[in-house]
UniProtKB/TrEMBL annotation:
The keyword Membrane does not apply. GO terms for cellular component: nucleus. It comes from the Eukaryota. This is Lariat debranching enzyme C-terminal domain-containing protein. Pfam families: DBR1, Metallophos. Belongs to the lariat debranching enzyme family. SUPFAM superfamilies: Metallo-dependent phosphatases (SSF56300). Its cofactor is Fe(2+); Zn(2+); Mn(2+). One of its GO terms (molecular function) is RNA lariat debranching enzyme activity. PANTHER family: LARIAT DEBRANCHING ENZYME (PTHR12849:SF0), RNA LARIAT DEBRANCHING ENZYME (PTHR12849). One of its GO terms (biological process) is mRNA splicing, via spliceosome. It comes from Melanomma pulvis-pyrius CBS 109.77.
Length: 470
């Protein structure tokens, strides 16, 4: 992927390079991934310990014990405990900061405990349903799950025990989450989704892809190969890099965004008339914009116009599932806006931080404790995007109550709530666990003073007296 390393920076810009690794689907094979990472680093003259982070693009399968295994939607022959439980119990340690999104084969009960993101195990951070995080000056956006139109506008209604519909619908992307990403107004460096952004295949060597995988062409022909919301988010955020898994094949593409609108750059591609004739006319109309409230133009501060897309396979012999990359973030000389995020560890690495703009979006979209009962509808996805002044008020609140108090650094507050795997404790195939309200979600909601809708037991009336209300 030489095209990913040759990024130009102007004379007034400061280039900050990172060494990262990206992996496609995980499917419970963490040991294989970390072993392969070791070898890949060795052959490139890198050290795993010096990598900034590893990204895993979903189907992670954070299965802590046998009961978690009953919350995963997977064909019987693929049902296996995998390696994660050893990282959860503390028997093994992730050798590098590992950033994870969810896919469509997950221990969905565990992931939903961490709806806003959190540590699945020490050094393994799940981004939650959607997120924008900071690693030094880098902004990383992720969306978990896959797109299915029939569930898109539903709230997150699934609770344990899941019935046979809920065990699948729980990982479907929701509009109430995507609408938060569409409120982001400042540049993002890296985007991650499990299924590919829709139409991204057309920006790479699609002839070879379709020759290799004819079924992909059947889907692409009806404009249904990837995720329409991921496409919308990619076109809105225009990050320099976008990584995906799901299709179990390595594929790269370069998306050139057109002008200053989210008009689909697909229309500008040189696709033969013969091929065009096989595609639906709607592909040459307006871009996917289901909600009237969705932004029609990219925010003025987002000026990047090229997204390098890379999809990778799942682990296995002769599969291309891992890639080492050098990525750059460029800061304008004299820009102090990222100073809060620049603190380093004694080893000289940046650390994970919450993002100020993102927290303000969560708070303005969410269930603020002081705002009355109607805000619950917003948090559960029944309502609309909040008015613009709510975002500004919310940003001020975050700056006063979070940034100024030094709370942006993500705490290392992993705790085990569910039991670790015990080979003597056999669960039968229908036995699902109880809910384990996660203390990380509790602490996050308390910090933002939003209602913790994922914990029925939490005392939501507790308000920190140090918090300043405006
Ligand atoms: Zn997969």
């Amino acid at each position: 992927m030489t095209d990913l390393t040759l990024l130009e920076t102007g004379p007034s810009e400061l280039s900050i390079p990172l060494k990262i690794a990206v992996e496609g689907c995980c499917h419970g094979s963490l040991d294989n991934i970390y072993n392969s990472l070791e070898k890949a680093c060795e052959s490139r003259g890198w050290e795993v310990a010096k990598l900034d982070f590893l990204i895993i693009c979903g189907d992670f399968q954070a299965i802590r014990n046998e009961r978690d295994l009953n919350c995963i939607s997977v064909p019987w022959r693929y049902r296996t405990l995998g390696d994660f439980y050893r990282y959860y119990s503390g028997e093994r340690q992730a050798p590098v900061l590992t950033l994870v999104i969810g896919g469509n084969h997950e221990a969905s009960n565990y992931l939903s405990e961490l709806y806003y993101g959190g540590w699945l195990a020490p050094n393994i951070y799940y981004l939650g349903a959607v997120n924008v995080l900071r690693y030094g000056p880098f902004r990383i956006a992720g969306l978990s799950g896959i797109f299915k139109g029939t569930d898109y506008c539903k709230p997150h209604h699934e609770r344990l025990p899941y019935d046979r519909n809920e065990i699948r619908s729980i990982y479907h992307v929701r509009e109430c989450d995507i609408s938060k990403l569409l409120q982001v107004r400042f540049p993002v460096d890296i985007g991650i989704s499990h299924d590919w952004p829709r139409r991204v295949e057309w920006f790479g060597d699609y002839k070879r892809l379709f020759a290799d995988r004819p079924t992909f062409f059947e889907s692409a022909k009806i404009d249904n190969l990837g995720s329409a919301p991921a496409e919308q988010v990619m076109n809105h955020l225009r990050p320099k890099y976008w990584f995906s898994g799901h299709m179990h094949i390595k594929y790269s593409a370069v998306v050139e965004h057109k002008d200053n609108t989210v008009e689909d750059s697909f229309k500008a591609l040189a696709i033969s008339d013969e091929l065009r004739a096989q595609l639906p006319g709607s592909m040459f109309g307006a871009a996917f914009r289901k909600k009237k409230s969705a932004p029609k133009t990219s925010p003025p501060d987002i000026t990047n116009i090229v997204t390098h897309f890379l999809a990778l396979d799942k682990p296995g012999p002769d599969r291309e599932f891992l890639e080492l990359l050098e990525v750059n973030s460029s800061l304008k000389a004299g820009d102090t806006s990222t100073n809060t995020y620049m603190q380093k560890t004694p080893e000289g690495k940046f650390t994970l931080h919450y993002d100020e703009e993102w927290l303000s979006i969560i708070r303005s979209s969410g269930d603020i404790l002081a705002a009355g009962d109607t805000s619950l509808d917003i948090a559960l996805g029944k309502s609309d995007v909040p008015p613009p002044n709510a975002a500004l008020q919310s940003l001020r609140w975050i700056q006063t109550n979070i940034t100024a108090k030094g709370l942006l650094k993500i705490p290392e507050n992993f705790e085990k709530h569910a039991p670790i795997y015990d080979p003597n404790d056999k669960a039968n195939a229908n036995e699902q666990p109880c809910e384990f309200p996660n203390s990380q979600t509790g602490e996050f909601c308390k910090m933002l003073q939003i209602r913790n809708q994922f914990s029925v037991d939490e005392d939501v009336t507790e308000i920190d007296n140090d918090i300043v209300f405006e």
